[in-house]
Amino acid sequence: MNGLQYYGAHDIRYNTSIPIPKVTDPNDVVLKVAYCGICGTDLHEFEEPIFFANAATDQGDKISGKKLPLVLGHEFSGIVEEVGSNVKHLKRGDHAVIETTGHCSDRINYYKYNTELENECQSCELGFENTCKDLNFIGLGVDNGGLAQYAKYSSQHVLKVDKKIPLDVGALIEPLSVVHHAIELSGFKAGEDALVLGAGPIGLAALLILQAKGASKVVVSEPASIRRDQAAKLGADVFNPAEFGNLATEELKKLGSRKQGFAKSFDCSGIQATYSTSIQALRAHGVACNVAIWPHKSVAHFVMDVTLEEKTSVGSLGYQTKDFEGVIELLESGKLEIEKAKALITGKHGLRDAVEKGFKELIEHKDKHIKILISPDL
Q: Where's the Alcohol dehydrogenase-like C-terminal domain (predicted)?
């Protein structure tokens, strides 16, 4: 089959002779890929391997033992091609998406006769598979991902979606699940207001999920005019912090309930200014949730910003299967409008053009795009 394989930093190759995955386990599901999004994480991997670093070692990925080269892509939708004998919730022809985490319970699929693998890490034992000590994703090292004609994964990760949801929108369910998890973790309730810091793909996805969950008001703070305009078109109240300099946080806080701050905030940028603002712009007993992935560096944190008004600061990592289910329910019920979700798609290209018109385009013109999708059929 055709696909994009990751060999290392700045070394992604279009290959026409990748073996087509086949069912080899009773729990396997093979999808014919329809669309796969390019994520900010993929762009980081293009510059320098992070998740792929384990697959670049002699031991291979910690969950699967897989080694490079591997097919990229973890935001994808497709049509079920083949299922194993144990799979009952899916059949050939169904539309589906893959929840792409790899964690302790997946390791046994790759090391079937190793009894030492029966013990789960503490996070997985507690039901928090998204913080597994060896967490990784298919398309990032656990196994071949969605930037190819076909992909395979265990059925516990494959969710059926109603055919009224277009397959291009289906490829957005993964990034939407990232913010669904953060919003659930924050304890957000319908009728509350919220602040989103940053109007990149994850910030705009947060806006859509907050709207679908009944936010009374969503303010998006973003200095870049193109991204601010994108947020406004999706129904956000927008704020340009660059206009107010050192007074930006105080001015932003006035846009919250009773001009005293927001119930919830979501930092989707990951810089000192947005981290501080996410806490300082809250009302008393508000919750600040960090959704951004940070580089390994410390930032200034004033503990009394949290303590004086009993605020909460929490971090959110990835998603769980229940978040995919939540996003699918919002789409199928109409609470999350399909046309609004479609507005996140700013480009579609074929596999052969994915590096030049996908990866490099996003790296060089990131403010211009929200989500570029790659399809094997284009």
A: 201-332
Whole-angstrom Cα distance, residue 126 to residue 73?
28
pTM of the model: 0.97
| CA nearest neighbour of 174 among 97, 109, 248 | 97
Residue 69 preceded by cis peptide, ω within 30: yes
Two tokens at 321?
């299967």
The Cα 94–Cα 36 span in angstroms is 17
DSSP code at position 148: B
* Domains in the chain with CATH codes: 3-172+344-375 (3.90.180.10), 175-315 (3.40.50.720)
* Phi and psi torsions of 264, nearest 5°: -140, 150
Contacts of 191-194 spanning 24+ positions with Cβ under 8 A? 191/215, 191/216, 192/216, 192/263, 192/264, 193/217, 193/218, 193/219, 193/256, 193/257, 193/262, 193/263, 193/264, 194/218, 194/219, 194/262, 194/263, 194/264, 194/265, 194/266
Other CB atoms within 10 A of residue 293 CB = 13
What contacts 365, CB < 8 A, 6 or more positions away?
Answer: none
Q: pLDDT by residue (tens digit) across 274-303? A: 999 999 999 999 999 999 999 888 999 999
CA distance 200 to 230: 9
Higher model confidence: residue 109 or residue 205?
A: 205
